Amino acid sequence: MFKKILIANRGEIALRIIRTCKEMGIKTVAVYSTADKESLHVRFADEAVCIGPPASKQSYLNIPSIISAAELTNADAIHPGYGFLSENAEFSRICEDYKIKFIGATADQINLMGDKATAKETMKKAGVPCIPGSEGLIDTVEEGIKLAEEIGYPVIIKATAGGGGRGMRIIRNSGEFQKNWDDAKMESGAAFGNDGLYLEKYIEEPRHIEIQIVGDQYGKVCHLSERDCSIQRRHQKLVEETPSPIVSDELREKMGAAAIAGAAAIKYEGAGTIEFLVDKHGKFYFMEMNTRIQVEHPITEEVTDFDLIKEQIKVAAGEPISGQNYFPKMFSMECRINAEDPSQNFRPNPGTIKQLNLPGGHGVRVDSHVYAGYSIPPNYDSMIAKLIVTARSREEVLVRMKRALQEFFIDGVKTTIPFHLKLMDDPTFQSGKFNTSFLESFDFSDL
After folding, report:
1. By three-state DSSP, how is residue 314 classified?
2. d(CA 405, CA 422)
3. pLDDT digits (tens, 9 = 90+) for 56-92
4. Which of 207, 292, 336, 365 does the annotation list as catalytic?
5. Do residues 106 and 33 lie in contact, with contact meaning Cβ atoms separated by under 8 Å?
6. For the domain bounded by 132-201, which CATH number is listed?
7. Has 336 been annotated as catalytic?
8. Which CATH class is domain 4-103?
9. Which residue, of 79, 162, 167, 314, has the fewest CB within 10 Å?
């Protein structure tokens, strides 16, 4: 087992990893930018190293600085968390070159799944259902229009190196193609340094369902059932739950088997997620694979009694997994608490937290790195906490979540708590009969 792990991340996920390491008797190293000097992950790690100024490129994305910190502190492994360098193949390979274990996927696995066109082809070969679309990148508007007419409108063009909805456009007829093509190409090139685009059939009224998987170094893979991530705004997840209100035992079995087949095809190592779109007829299609731990992993932990961070570390240390699949024993939901003003188009609202009260009680968990007096820096993602509640039924979860949100008090910055409170009272959300476009018609005016 590892003696010391460096966490190449910040905020709540860095603190989450530190907690599991302490329980496993493993020393930890926090890295931080000057903007994060007062963050809790810096305080609670055994050692802390400043790696640069606030800008991510000069700190949390600065590979030489992170490797230097690992060597300086004699860390024998690096956990990347999510975001930043967690799906960076070069970083994974450099860690291997420096004989530091990267707690995550190998460089080859990241490359296979990081490029969406390559990932789709890999999944097709593994027998995983895929959305009809281009075999690879499309080079011209004419080529795209021809394919769109073959598979039928609407279609969606996506950035091959994309994420978070950037470089993505829905096209409903040939007359819309040129402008959307130009916009997507420009946006993806600016965001990812790669303007490659591919095309797929656009699935209307879909649910976004993902399967949590874990693989070991010996080719064995298991799944831990699904998470429903359909409550999204501009392709950004706001609420996740498990089990999904629309997934039957039969569908769960089929999707789980497909996810295992896909992960096994690339001999996947560590914790990861296979993401699917499920149409209104119950047919599911591969969308992408995340080769890392995900923001919403706590709800899976709560319903399966399974520490995913601990399993990541054990797998990276060479321990085999049991191969047993895990199924929900309870119901769990996560609300992302962001420092944003929902009444102002979810504009980020960094600032100093003057007062803070975290909710508690049976079945309530808060993953956060903030405290009263903490100044939220404007340089990073605006998520400041994750509120997770667990109960024996979805109805109980909704009641408990509303109660916990009412207890969650943050003074000094605007947050998404008012949005979540209104969502809990929405009849359509309560019924579970919604899709990924649900928030497009949601009334944000009185928040």
Report:
1. helix
2. 10
3. 999 999 999 999 999 999 999 999 999 999 999 999 9
4. 292
5. no
6. 3.30.1490.20
7. no
8. alpha beta
9. 314
